Amino acid sequence: MLVEHRKPRFFYGYIIVLTGFLIMMIVSGTLYTFGVFFKPLLTEFGWTRAETSGAYSLFMVLHGLFYIVTGRLNDRFGPRIVMTACGFFLGLGYLLMSQISAIWQLYLFYGVIIAVGMSGGFVPLGSTVARWFVKRRGLMTGIVMSGVGLGTMIMPPVANGLISSYGWHTAYIVLGSIALVLVILAQFLKRDPSQMGQLPYGEDEVKTEGLDSQVTGYSLREAIHARQFWMLCAAFLCFGFCLQVIMVHIVPYAIDKGISAAIAASILTVIGGLGIAGRVIIGGGGDRIGSKLALIIGFILMAIALSLVVVAREMWMLYLFAAIFGFSYGGLVAVQSPLVADLFGLLAHGVVWGVVVFSVTIGGAIGPLLAGYIFDITSSYHLTFLVCVALSVAGLILILLLTPTSRKLPSHFTGLEAQNITEEAFKL
After folding, report:
1. Nearest Cα residue to 188 out of 6, 8, 18
2. Cβ proximity of 363 and 39 under 8 Å
3. Which of 207, 140, 290, 234 is nearest to 4 (CA)?
4. Residue pLDDT, tens place only, 26-77
5. What would the pLDDT profile of 299-325 be if each residue is shown by its tens digit?
6. Measured distance CA(236)–CA(361) in Å, rounded
7. DSSP for residue 112
8. Which of 2, 61, 283, 351 sits in a 20 to 30 Å window from 380, CA-based?
9. Contacts of 355 (CB under 8 A, 6+ apart)
């Protein structure tokens, strides 16, 4: 027997989307300042690029692992508690970064403490949005994740300006203070609509068919036995490698080409700005054309962009690369959560998606470290960018081969009905 829910005048899910957008803007905006701090840290301490990149790689591995933990905690306790704790650690980590004087401190403060703080954003928020929206899930996820793009547009230039005017110590203090705002924003988050006496957007249509999207789907143990799960992880590992190579090394690469630090930082601004468009257009488009086709488009565009940066010799080519790359990566980020929901349901969405995102962070850990090592040996990023092109093509092939799963449904559904519902959600 279904519980009656009176239709509210205002759907609280939109507050979830707005709050998630602001949180992602702060979390990801501060994350992508690492490339801006890269040269000042090298200059002050004389570390190699591989050593400095290694701290970022440690961060990527650990915050990916922590995503599995925060995804599980979000499934059980909701995002408010998770984000409150993580916001505190994120702010603390950046404040401590202002005091570093040795390489081990860089690895501890950035690689560990900031990793804990960062794990409260992407997976818990994306999973929460999936619980609030059945219809428009891709669009709403895209809007939340577009905060990443706006943060990438704002934070790197701000950090560069602070470094130029006051030094990198003060710049990190400012970032830490901004990050602590997350503790306040977290208080507006709710795990699912039932906590507000509401239904997910579009759920009433699903309920009439006898399917409760909040309790159907795969457990983590069941998901990891599915071939599609590992194909998805492999594709996003390739994506993570390419993404983090660019986000960490594109500014030093541009500076090496004789471009000023301020203009080099603006490359990240372009990536962030077009990332907003990619999240909304490709993410929202996934609601209509299917998550798989949206991913295919994203990987094709990423391969084109990375091919362009291999031959880029002038600033306009770097800006064109940044525009295409930002649009593609924004779309790939926005479609992740809806695709996991399509394939594996919402029963354990947070932890299942957390493991998928862990594969992204493994690729993201390998990429910048390998790029720094190759540069230390060859004094060039050319080989690294060629590897990125190859991996973007590999990710595209994996997604092309991806097929629907047979989603678990209530016992009164026949196997044929289950297959039809799954294929309708997944499409292509």
Report:
1. 18
2. no
3. 207
4. 998 898 888 889 889 988 888 888 888 888 888 988 988 888 888 888 888 8
5. 999 999 999 988 887 788 889 999 999
6. 9
7. I
8. 61
9. 68, 71, 220, 223, 224, 233
Query: For the chain, which residues make up each domain, given as ranges?
Result: 13-191+212-426
On whether the CB atoms of residues 201 and 134 are closer than 8 A, the answer is yes
Q: Which two tokens stand for residue 170?
A: 């003060």
Q: What are the structure tokens assigned to 249, written together?
A: 């090394």
CB 171 within 8 A of CB 93: no
DSSP state of 6: P
The CA–CA distances, whole Å, from 124 to 73, 93, 127 equal: 9, 20, 5
Alpha helices (runs of H) in 257-289, residue ranges in sequence order? 261-289
What is the distance between the alpha carbons of residues 344 and 222, in angstroms, rounded to a whole number?
9
Task: Tell me the C-alpha distance between 301 and 153, whole Å.
Answer: 20
Outline where DSSP puts E strands in 294-336.
none
Residue 132 · residue 10 · CB < 8 Å: no
Q: Which two tokens stand for residue 428?
A: 């292509």
State how far the Cα of 335 lies from the Cα of 285, in Å rounded to an integer.
9
User: Residue 18 phi/psi, 5° resolution?
Assistant: -65, -45
- CA 33 – CA 265 distance, rounded (Å): 9
What are the distances in angstroms from CA 266 to CA 16, 263, 277, 301? 30, 5, 17, 21
Read off the pTM.
0.72
Residue 156 has which token pair? 């790197």
CATH topology classification for 13-191+212-426: Growth Hormone; Chain: A; (1.20.1250)
DSSP state of 113: I
